[in-house]
TrEMBL record:
Classification of source organism: Eukaryota, Metazoa, Chordata, Craniata, Vertebrata
Annotated TM spans: 41-60, 72-101, 107-125, 178-201, 221-241, 264-285, 297-319, 365-388, 455-478
Lyase keyword on record: no
Compartments where found: Membrane
MF GO annotations: chloride channel activity
Name assigned to this protein: Anoctamin
Gene Ontology CC annotation, any one: plasma membrane
Recorded family membership: Belongs to the anoctamin family.
Length: 519
């Protein structure tokens, strides 16, 4: 017998959402003789800590959604989709790495493919997510009236919409805090990031000088040390800034959770983008050193992936194991006359950390998308390392969700939210970056040998044409598949017909009441 979670948080959806939930959650689970222990729930045959970690490829997003809810299921769906979308880039990148490693002229074709790839995958994702959320019944979910955030404070007043008493805070004061405190602080952090970047370049120059004086194996390894140290410093700065951004955004006292999230995401993305990619832009477009760009990109990408895996999954898991040992010792030393297995399980789950959302996971994928789409034409193996990282990311995220954190509350959602816009913005920047890299290639320079101005104008023209083509493709490729559009139209038609029938029934009853009163 299959035992499912004893509760499910429902969402205000159409009738077909409940049918979709019953349809997607009532199928047979994979038959694994294991039990998952989560927060107060024993689930037979849904062994996420074994099934998820050992057979992740065969676990559908529908099964994840039935247990964790739509928000987390959509993240895992996006992670899986993005991993498969990287495969063509990885397949094309391997022969470029093997046969054209030092021939940057041949990277023009790879950069051209990169431009097309970065646009198409985001548009196809919209269609795929529409299929998923329609099946789950959340695609046409209407946005609920947002209540004030738990941390929102102010003088008590009356809400003109609801008529209820709630805190009121002046929007002028909030704007003053944003523009007079938060904005200068963000700019100061950006300046500090650039200052650290220049220190990194000084370290690289010293490493190069040492290598030229003493060309040994040790000096060759020293060449990679500045990039590795800089990658570690980048991760540390990103995490420290994240805490500062959360404090500032809370201090700004936003009334709605959506407003709070938008301001937080904006702060974090701006800093992370500059902190992670400023050195690559400087090497590519100021120093014009493609070989150095390739080395820095490879070192930053691989080091950041290893650090993220350790910090986000392995370290929390190790700390959780230590806590579990302490809890077990405390329980067995108490010698209470109770079922120790159940008591031990309750205490272990009580000590688990609270899951804070998918913000960091999406941010990691966003930065990875930047490494692949912005400069991968000079390092074609970037997509290969991204695929390998995402495969392990599936397992580490599963480990995180099932062994480290308590089971989060289910939250219905229709899209990945502001992250879709973030990825599309990165895609636009990648068009500009790859166009400039193509224009800098020796092959293109040979065509415009006599006129650099003409070359610049041609590059700008091509960049504008490609941006226009990108937006045309985004318009032509429908966000929802045709069959989903038809089903949604039928639902809307049926709801209108039902409303008309209800109005006719009410009018008919009123007419009968009027006739009865006349008699």
């Amino acid at each position: 017998m299959h035992v499912f979670p004893p509760f499910h948080i429902s969402s205000p959806l159409q009738n077909h959402s409940r049918q979709s939930h019953m349809h997607s959650c009532s199928g047979d689970w994979p038959r694994q003789p294991a039990v998952v222990h989560t927060t107060g729930v024993y689930i037979h045959l849904l062994a996420f800590h074994s099934l998820f970690l050992l057979r992740i490829v065969f676990l559908s997003t529908d099964e994840i959604r039935c247990y964790f809810g739509e928000t987390i299921a959509l993240y895992f769906g996006f992670l899986e989709y993005f991993t498969f979308a990287l495969v063509p880039m990885a397949i094309i990148g391997i022969p470029y790495y093997v046969f054209a490693w030092e021939d940057y002229d041949k990277y023009v074709m790879f950069a051209s493919f990169n431009l097309l790839w970065s646009t198409v995958i985001l548009e196809v994702w919209k269609r795929y997510s529409a299929v998923l959320t329609y099946r789950w019944g959340t695609l046409m979910m209407k946005r609920q009236f947002e209540e004030p955030r738990p941390g929102f404070h102010g003088v008590l007043g009356i809400n003109p919409v609801t008529g209820r008493e709630e805190p009121v805070y002046s929007s002028i004061r909030r704007q003053l805090r944003i523009y007079l405190v938060s904005l200068p602080f963000v700019c100061l952090c950006l300046y500090f990031s650039l200052y650290v970047m220049m220190i990194y370049f000084e370290m690289e120059e010293q490493a190069l000088d040492y290598h030229y004086e003493d060309q040994t194996l040790f000096s060759s390894l020293i060449l990679f040390m500045p990039s590795i140290i800089y990658a570690v410093v980048i991760e540390v700065m990103n995490r420290i800034y994240r805490y500062a951004a959360e404090f500032l955004t809370s201090w700004e006292n936003h009334r709605l959770e959506s407003s709070y999230q938008n301001h937080l995401v904006l702060k974090v993305l701006v800093f992370n983008f500059l902190n992670c990619f400023a050195s690559l832009f400087y090497i590519a477009f100021v120093l014009f050193d493609m070989k150095r760009l390739r080395q820095s990109l490879a070192t930053l990408l691989i080091t950041s992936q290893v650090l993220n895996q350790c910090v986000e999954a392995l370290l929390p898991y190790w700390l959780q194991k230590r806590r579990n040992k302490k809890v077990k010792k405390r329980i067995y030393s108490s010698k209470m006359d109770i079922d120790l297995s159940l008591f031990e399980q309750v205490n272990l789950e009580k000590e688990m950390d609270t899951f804070l959302g998918t913000f960091d996971d999406y941010l990691e994928l966003f930065l990875q998308f930047g490494y692949v789409s912005l400069f991968s034409c000079v390092y074609p193996l970037a997509a290969v390392f991204a695929v390998l990282n995402n495969i392990t990311e599936n397992y580490s995220d599963a480990l995180k969700m099932c062994r480290v954190f308590k089971r989060p509350f289910s939250e219905p959602t229709a899209t990945i939210g502001v992250w879709q816009l973030a990825f599309e913005t990165m895609s636009v920047i990648s068009v500009v970056t790859n166009c400039v890299l193509i224009g800098m290639s020796p092959q293109v320079h040979a065509v415009f040998r006599d006129s650099k101005t003409e070359l610049v104008l041609i590059v700008v023209l091509v960049e504008h044409i490609l941006l226009a083509l990108k937006f045309v493709m985004a318009f032509v490729i429908a966000d929802k598949p045709r069959d989903i559009q038809i089903k949604l139209a039928k639902l809307e038609f049926e709801s209108l017909e039902a409303l008309k029938q209800q109005v006719r029934t009410v009018n008919l009853s009123e007419e009968r009441c009027g006739e009865g009163s006349k008699r």
